[in-house]
Each structure stands twice: as structure tokens, then as C-alpha cells.
Amino acid sequence: MSDDPASDTRVVDSPGAVSAPGVADRPDTDAPAASPATQAYSAVDPTKSSEDSVAPQSGAGPRVNRMALWALALSILGITFIVGLVLGYRARTQIRQRREAGLPFATAAIWVGWAYLGVFVFGLVVYGWILFVA
Considering the entire predicted model, what is its pTM? Predict the structure, then answer.
């Protein structure tokens, strides 16, 4: 065997091929003559690959909760922070029940909403102090 990975690659004919060569014609294969695989594959054993633990990139993961995205957007806007805060809590509940993605968005919406609420209350206290005490 050489160190070149391209030398370990074999091409398997499609099952609908008219004249498939026999096993005796291809001494470097262990597969039967009419294999159902139609793509090139490596001679490395795929069951011992470290790539099995990698998540598929085909979008088969959980959906992102849209309410969490809306909650974050409305919290960041500022004037609608109360709606964003409420939607953040509702989105967090939905995410846990439905096992969806988007928990960081809902958590960020809750934090931003509470921050805006704190600034708003602080502003009211300062305004009241200026109006009645000073």
C-alpha cells in the first residue's frame, strides 16, 4: 500500500451495468461483481472511521424556534422590550417542551428585556426624584 489516498480509491459499477466484470477480472476487490454502490469509496473500513461522531450537515437537526428569534428582535428594539420579554419566556417554555433549538436566543431576549426594564424603572425613579424632591 502506498501513502497516497487516491491509490486506495475504487469505483464500483452501477447495478444496471450491461457487462459487469467478474471478481476474477478485478483481483483488488473483495466485493461481489454487482455491488449496489454507485460512487467511489475508500478501501478504509468505514465502520472504524472517526467521522461517524460528526453530525450530518444536511439540516436534519432540530428547528430553531421562531418565537425566540422574534423575542430577541423585539427586545433589542427597546420600545417593544416588554413584548420581547414575554415572548422570550414563552419561547423558552416551547423550546423545552418541543426540544427545538434557539434557547440562547430566548435567553438573550430575556436578559435584554430585563435590562431595558431596569433602565426604564431607574429613569422613572430619577424623574420622580427630580420632580418631587429637587
Answer: 0.54
Return the DSSP state at 13.
Answer: -
The pLDDT, as a whole number, for residue 121 is 96
Contact 20, 33 (CB under 8 A): yes
Cell matching residue 110: 430575556
User: Could you tell me if 38 and 14 are in contact, meaning their C-beta atoms sit under 8 angstroms apart?
Assistant: yes
* Location of C-alpha cell 473483495: 30
Q: pLDDT tens digits for 10-49?
A: 666 656 555 555 555 555 555 555 555 555 655 655 565 5
Cell of residue 21, nine digits: 466484470
CB 40 within 8 A of CB 50: no
Q: What are the respective helix, strand and coil percentages of the chain, to the nearest 5?
A: 55, 5, 45
Residue 42's DSSP bridge partners are 9
Decide the pairing of beta strands 41-42 and 9-10: antiparallel
